Amino acid sequence: MPKHVLVPVDGSPQSSKAVEFAVGEWPDAELTLLNVINPVDAGYSPTAGVPSGAEEWFEEAKANAERVLAAATPTAAATVHTRTEVGRPSQTIVEVAEEGDIDHVVMGSHGRKGVSRILLGSVAEAVIRNSTVPVTVVR
Predict the structure, then answer these.
(1) Model's pTM, two decimal places?
(2) Which of 80, 76, 41 is nearest to 60 (CA)?
C-alpha cells in the first residue's frame, strides 16, 4: 500500500478524478499534488529563445497553478502537499516521483485517440514508460 502518492493536476476533470481515486483508494496516504508549468505554452523554444511578454505569462501561469492546486486539494486526505514546477510535464512528473519518497503516481488520462494522440503525444504514456514507481491512470 502506497504511503506517499504523487498526483499531477492540471484543472481538467480527469485530474480531479485522479485526486478522488487516490484519496478513495489510499485515504491514509500522504498526497503531493503537482502542477507543471510548461514553457512551451508561452511560445518558448530553445532555438527561438524567450518570447516577449514571457514574464507576464509566467506570473499568470504561477497564479493559475495556485488556483488549480487550491481547487484540487481534497479535504478528506490525511496529509496534502502542493508543488509547482516548470518544465515538460511528463519529464517533470517522472523527476519529481524519483527525487522524493513518492511510491506511486496517480494521474488522469485525457483519452485522446487516433491522429491527435500521435501528434500531441501522451503525458500519461510517457510517465508510464519512464517512471521508476508504479503509475495508475484514471479515465
Answers:
(1) 0.88
(2) 41
